């Protein structure tokens, strides 16, 4: 625009100067004043021409420079985004990109406590899982915890966060973009399909694959607890949050409830969070939680993998026809002491004849150590790896007096097998005496149960 204006002004000036020369020639003939005026005019015309030529050259060079900068900038940006990807730094996505990648959030691949997960493909062809987190305050908190925890970690058994998209306004959903893990979550590979609840995918994981998953998850948790700059407590370890890749190796996901604490902090006070069935007793019994609370949930997951059943389930009593809650760890404890561990192994696995009884005993003992009532009696995850990989002998765990079955298992209308219902709850911390068969106030009476055989 500026260039055009300058050219027009120059052309008009040259025209005006030529008109002046013609007018002077007509009125002054070839007199001395005419030559004077013509001389000045011609010099002015030459000056305008020079100005135009200089300007054109200057503009050409400027355009060249700009285009060079632009292409260098583009290259830099490409390089930068490549480096970000290699370094695992999450990228900020636009909502439109995510809509395009998921084809308008069409293919739902999972649902959990914080939102829905959709399959998608990014422009560079990589397959992703896009998690849509709803809810204003809770959503924001889970979104922040998840980004804070997972953005800084790199481990082959932890899911990779490619990027995120924060909410445009307070009540709009937030998004997290993860690498897509093909075989979905562990629950559909260890729990048999229920007649009335059909699901897509899944099957029966072999004994060796289950044992490998146990090691993979232990490694992921050991890394979070011991090898990161801040200690990361996952606080929602359960089969639904353990994904299986193409080779059925475990990838731990869902850091929505996680907590970052300083390396030298041994216990932390926080609101009760997690999923019923996997909550460690210290949420109620001790002053604060620690990485040992993850060890407890891990122990429960081990038992669930061994038995192919939830730790708490509702079973029918033959004589009365009534249903009652059955606590699997108590049964395992009894069978372990009677040296009859094969009786608690997933029946589908026993039929294959591929289960090694010694390995079952080892896994059962590790699990029972992990769910010890007192957190200080549980091993840390590094020790768990040592035990599972056979570098440390596993002794028989001591008998616990009582175990808090679960904070919320008292729900009568639940069959205890939901597993996916996660809650962050605010209840007063209860100071309770630990005694055998201690009777609790009605709200908690069914959450404590003796683990030792009666
Ligand atoms: N990266 C992923 N690849 C494949 N499936 C996934 C992935 N992330 C989550 N899912 C599926 O979605 C479910 C819910 O995801 P999760 O992150 O646990 O959400 P929530 O925080 O709502 O519990 C998982 O149990 C799993 O089946
Ligand atoms: Mg989850």
TrEMBL record:
* Record-annotated Protein kinase domain positions: 103-394
Segments passing through the bilayer: 7-28, 34-54
InterPro entries, per database record: G-type_lectin_kinases/EP1-like (IPR051343), Kinase-like_dom_sf (IPR011009), Prot_kinase_dom (IPR000719), Protein_kinase_ATP_BS (IPR017441), Ser/Thr_kinase_AS (IPR008271)
Is Kinase there in the keyword field?
A: yes
Reading the lineage from the top rank, the first entry is: Eukaryota
Kindly give the Pfam families that the UniProt entry links to this protein: Pkinase (PF00069)
UniProt entry keywords in alphabetical sequence = ATP-binding, Kinase, Membrane, Nucleotide-binding, Serine/threonine-protein kinase, Signal, Transferase, Transmembrane, Transmembrane helix
Q: Where does ATP bind?
A: 131
Tell me the protein family, please: Belongs to the protein kinase superfamily.
**Which protein are we looking at?**
Probable receptor-like protein kinase At5g20050
């Amino acid at each position: 625009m500026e260039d055009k204006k300058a050219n027009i002004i120059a052309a008009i000036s040259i025209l005006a100067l030529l008109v002046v020369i013609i007018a002077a020639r007509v009125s002054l003939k070839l007199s001395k004043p005419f030559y004077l005026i013509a001389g000045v005019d011609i010099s002015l015309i030459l000056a305008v021409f020079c100005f135009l030529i200089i300007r054109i050259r200057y503009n050409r060079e400027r355009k060249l420079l700009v285009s060079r900068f632009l292409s260098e900038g583009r290259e830099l940006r490409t390089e930068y985004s490549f480096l970000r990807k290699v370094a695992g730094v999450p990228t900020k996505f636009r909502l439109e990109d995510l809509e395009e990648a998921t084809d308008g959030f069409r293919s739902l691949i999972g649902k959990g406590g914080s939102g829905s997960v959709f399959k998608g493909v990014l422009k560079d062809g990589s397959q992703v899982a896009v998690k849509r987190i709803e809810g204003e305050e809770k959503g924001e908190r889970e979104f922040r915890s998840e980004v804070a925890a997972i953005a800084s970690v790199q481990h082959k058994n932890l899911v990779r966060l490619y990027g995120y998209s924060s909410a445009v306004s307070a009540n709009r959903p937030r998004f997290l973009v993860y690498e897509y893990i093909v075989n979905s979550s562990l629950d559909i590979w260890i729990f048999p399909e229920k007649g009335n609840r059909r699901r897509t995918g899944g099957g029966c994981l072999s004994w060796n694959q289950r044992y490998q998953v146990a090691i993979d998850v232990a490694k992921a948790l050991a890394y979070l607890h011991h090898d990161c700059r801040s200690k990361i407590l996952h606080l929602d370890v359960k089969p639904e949050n353990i994904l299986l890749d193409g080779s059925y190796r475990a990838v731990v996901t869902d850091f929505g409830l996680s907590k970052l604490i300083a390396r030298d902090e041994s216990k932390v006070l926080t609101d009760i969070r997690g999923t019923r069935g996997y909550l460690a007793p210290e949420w109620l019994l001790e002053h604060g939680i620690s990485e040992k609370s993850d060890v407890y949930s891990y122990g429960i997951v081990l038992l669930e993998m061994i038995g192919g059943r939830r730790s708490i389930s509702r079973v029918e009593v033959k004589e009365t026809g009534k249903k009652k809650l059955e606590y699997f760890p108590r049964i395992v404890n009894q069978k372990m002491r009677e040296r009859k561990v094969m009786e608690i192994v997933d029946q589908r696995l026993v039929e294959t004849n591929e289960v090694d009884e010694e390995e079952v005993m080892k896994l059962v003992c590790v699990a029972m150590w992990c769910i010890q009532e007192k957190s200080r009696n549980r091993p840390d995850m590094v020790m768990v790896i040592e035990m599972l990989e056979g570098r440390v002998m596993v002794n028989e765990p001591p008998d616990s007096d009582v175990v808090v079955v679960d904070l919320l298992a008292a729900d009568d209308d639940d069959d205890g097998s939901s597993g996916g219902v996660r809650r962050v709850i605010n209840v007063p911390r209860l100071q309770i005496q630990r005694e055998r068969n201690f009777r609790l106030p009605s709200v908690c009476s069914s959450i404590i149960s003796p683990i030792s055989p009666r």
